[in-house]
Amino acid sequence: MAKTVLHDEHVKLGASFTDFGGWDMPVRYSSDLAEHHAVRSAAGAFDISHMAEIFVTGSDAAVFLDHALIGVASEIAVGRAKYSMICNKDGGIIDDLIVYRLGDDNFLVIANAGNRHAVAHALHDRKDQFAVLVEDQSDEWALIAVQGPKATGILQTLTDTDLDPLKYYSIAAATVDGASAYLCRTGYTGEDGFEVLVSAEHAARVWNAILAAGSAEGIIAAGLACRDTLRLEAGMPLYGHELDEDHTPFEAGLGRVVRLDEDHEFVGREALQKRQEPAERLVGIVGQGKRAARAEYELRHPETGETIGRITSGALSPTLGYPVAMAYLTDRNFGVGDTISVDVRGNLEPYKIVKLPFYKKEQ
Fold first, then answer.
1. Cα angle at 237 between 14 and 283, to 5 degrees?
2. Contacts of 164 (CB under 8 A, 6+ apart)
3. How far is CA 273 from CA 86, 248, 258, 282, in A?
4. H helices within 234-290, ranges in order?
5. I want to staple 189 with a disulfide (CB 3.0 to 4.6 A). Which of 147, 161, 213, 357 is the partner?
């Protein structure tokens, strides 16, 4: 398995590891619940260096990304970012990603680790008619997420860049503990915070500096297990669960990301234009007891028992204290407020359909 540049630091901290898309990643350091609650109440530091960093530069960089992705990258202001997707010609999702604009002709695309090569290949395949350079620099960078209500204050002690003016979905060049970095005000937890992009050679120093700077504020190293429950509570999709090439953005409840403007031609446009009324759709559901619905459990019609969908992600919410799940629902007769059944190991448990997200941080 591949290892991030911070692997030895995780070993020193006593982490347990798991295979995540071919990467040997820390799943937890202490307990899933302790790490989850630390992020909600104070701060957590995550090693997400397995993510892919692809730089797109050149005079046609903006129009190229308009063609390659389903959003309009040319509208992104310098220093800002946008959530987007790259789809195949049939409208299936190759990956969801974040596009940062570093300059007029300079963009950074951060993609999921497991889709690094698929995204890089798709971008290369689509660039022939454009004056653009696509460079996969993933091995040269480390990415550290600092998330939680105290994350900004902790990070501020390590940089001279004023963090308060940086809005959600923005990026700024800075130094962190003396190392050159990009500070991305994004995250995957439903909390405020930053993702710190730093060269691989300085990663260990910056990681340890962040943990030391936040020790009095309650920051702890956090693993993939709590990251999963945090993103689930926040209603954020995970590729391979809610998103894949068998589903379109419309089915995933992310049709707002698709720009079908008349003058916006992109790969997959024709298929997506025809598939705006999906046969199944992603919904949020909450349980009335304590029995969590897990991935691949079936949704059942509450009267007939007919299978009407499947769970994509589910857990007992540590923050809310009751089961939450996301699921693909095939029966269009059910909507928000309605109750369906979930087959939880042979028992039909009532679950109510709700609006996502399940959890929103206090403003």
1. 130
2. 152
3. 15, 11, 10, 19
4. 269-274
5. 147
Q: Measuring CA to CA, which residue among 313, 310, 293, 303 is closest to residue 333?
A: 303
| Chain centroid offset of residue 263 CA | 29
The model scores a pTM over 0.70 = yes
| C-beta separation of 45 from 6 below 8 A | no
- List, in order, residues 6 or more apart from 321 with CB less than 8 Å away: none
pLDDT tens, residue by residue, 202-254: 999 999 999 999 999 999 999 999 999 999 999 999 999 999 999 999 999 99
Peptide bond into 357 cis (omega under 30): yes
Please tell me the predicted confidence (pLDDT) of residue 101: 98
Q: How far apart are CA 72 and CA 285, in angstroms?
A: 32
| Helices 224-233 & 32-41 angle (0-180, nearest 10) | 50
Question: How many angstroms separate the CA atoms of 31 and 222, rounded?
Answer: 9
The closest of 222, 45, 196 to 110, measured between CA atoms, is 196
Task: In whole angstroms, give the CA distance from residue 94 to residue 106.
Answer: 23
Q: Give the C-alpha separation, 265 to 72, whole Å.
A: 10
The amino acid that residue 115 corresponds to is N
| 3-class SS string, 15-51 | CEEEEECCEEEEEECCCHHHHHHHHHHCEEEEECCCC
Q: Which two tokens stand for residue 270?
A: 């024709």
Residues 157-214 pLDDT 10s: 999 999 999 999 999 999 999 999 999 999 999 999 999 999 999 999 999 999 999 9
Look at residue 15 in the predicted model and tell me its pLDDT.
98
Residue 45 has a pLDDT of 98
